[in-house]
Design brief:
Rossmann fold; globular; about 35% helix; 9 helices; alpha/beta; homodimer; Pantoate--beta-alanine Ligase, Chain: A,domain 2; six-stranded parallel beta sheet; about 280 residues; 2 domains; 10 strands; about 20% strand
Chain lengths: ~280, ~280
């Protein structure tokens, strides 16, 4: 069964005697990437809470809050078609923002070492909004684990740090990027793209892959080589919002201690901003 | 009984079956101001946890972290002399910072509407440090109420907002300023002052009182009058760190809606920074 709850108090009542809960926080418009998170949770917890809430505090003033796809009925249908085995899904999708934010949030969160790079450059305040909503969901649901995709890798790192410090009792589980047959990383924002744009969007993934291949096929100071190639790539195409090579363990510049790299990019097709990344051991 | 615990895990065990706990967070060097907070808590809860921890994250680089008075034995003795009636005090005073911060804090908290004024002007980062330690104490102890003095009024407002948003289940109780016979607001930092300096320090309290009296004795636009007097006062004596008149309900500039004012000041005697305030209905 996948049952729907719209009130925080009802959700609390439903889960109050549960001691093993998986949480999958989403903004809805579920695709295979989300469903994979849910499947992971179902395999590990008798109860999975899937939250569907388009969180206003993580959108910038000129971003797509109002047009963000809201498809609750289809989302629930997709969840109902999952193989639940002996586990249960509770969908929490508040109609009223006050169920999450009884008062407008005044407390801001920041993690300076993980900010001022990647998405934070284009979306100031975004990660504060993410932490504000995750705080409330963690507090409301007290899950044992919470599942996040690796597509938004910076978000994953921020939530890992956030949870480690503020909710050490909750385990953060990372789930690999799910891709369409073309290789395009799945995203609710892919719905904004027409077929031609979807082809254009492959530049993002293909560029990441080429850079990674070049890293491994070059002989010396690969990091510098890739950085030069990144600069060249960006300078030739202004649709890049960012493209960067960082230490995947801390999002700092790669150093002699680095064992895992990330190449991450954001690419804008008309008004649609897409992100993707590739992480690899060296 | 007032028993001492130095480990977080021991504290957790001691309070795990308690459902009615009062918390008095302190940095030690207890004076009558602190003891009043403890008395309040004792009158309302069977268990009072008094924490004694000189929190490094709320001190600036050039502040008095290393010289801050540490007097644990005397503190415990003072607590033991309180009239406990049927209640119990548990003192939690970690020897190792790791009991509070298992890892160095990376999450920063801010509340912009309550910052950039009063103490925050002189002590950037101070309130972030306060929120960092209060977060950990609230999470560790899960008290029903927590007690704070009104002397650090901005801290009180910040903690009320912080708790309202992040720990709505905890009630914040404000306790009036306790003063020495001279009128000087009690403070652990008064220990730094010699007798002459203690006389000088009365300038702080006396100025606040005069301004308040002038407010009530003037006929028209009292707020502007007091603001002019504040400017004059500060310009004549560079020991003022700040002196300000604000709406006591939100720390904004007084408006037509204001019903309660605060005049707050920080005054520096040699290297000792003292704060005080007066709050009054209009």
């Amino acid at each position: 069964m996948a049952t729907l709850t719209t009130k925080a108090i009802e959700l609390k009542n439903k889960i109050k005697n549960q001691s093993n809960i998986g949480l999958v926080p989403t903004m809805g418009n579920l695709h295979e990437g989300h469903l994979n998170l849910v499947r992971e949770s179902l395999s590990q917890h008798p109860i999975t809470v899937v939250t569907i809430f388009v969180n206003p505090t993580q959108f910038g003033k000129n971003e797509d809050l109002s047009s963000y796809p809201r498809t609750l009925d289809e989302d629930i249908e997709k969840l109902r078609q999952l193989d639940l085995k002996n586990s249960e899904i509770i969908v929490f999708s508040p109609k009223d923002e006050k169920e999450i934010y009884p008062s407008a949030p005044l407390i801001n969160f920041s993690i300076s070492s993980l900010e001022n790079k990647l998405c934070d450059l284009n979306r100031p305040g975004h990660f504060n909004g993410v932490m504000q909503v995750i705080y409330r969901l963690f507090k409301l649901i007290s899950p044992n684990s919470a599942y996040f995709g690796e597509k938004d890798y910076q978000q994953l790192m921020i939530i890992k740090t956030f949870s480690h410090e503020l909710f050490p009792e909750i385990e953060i589980k990372a789930v690999p990027i799910k891709r369409e047959a073309s290789g395009l990383a799945m995203s609710s924002r892919n719905n904004y793209l027409n077929d031609d744009e979807k082809v254009d969007a492959l530049i993002l993934k293909n560029t990441l892959n080429s850079l990674k291949q070049n890293y491994f096929s070059s002989n010396e100071s690969s990091v510098n080589l890739i950085k030069e190639q990144i600069d060249k790539t960006i300078s030739k195409d202004d649709r890049w919002q960012y493209l960067d090579l960082l230490d995947a363990d801390n999002l700092l510049a790669p150093s002699a201690k680095t064992t895992k790299l990330i190449i991450a990019g954001a690419y804008k097709i008309n008004n649609v901003r897409l992100i993707d990344n590739t992480v690899f051991n060296i």
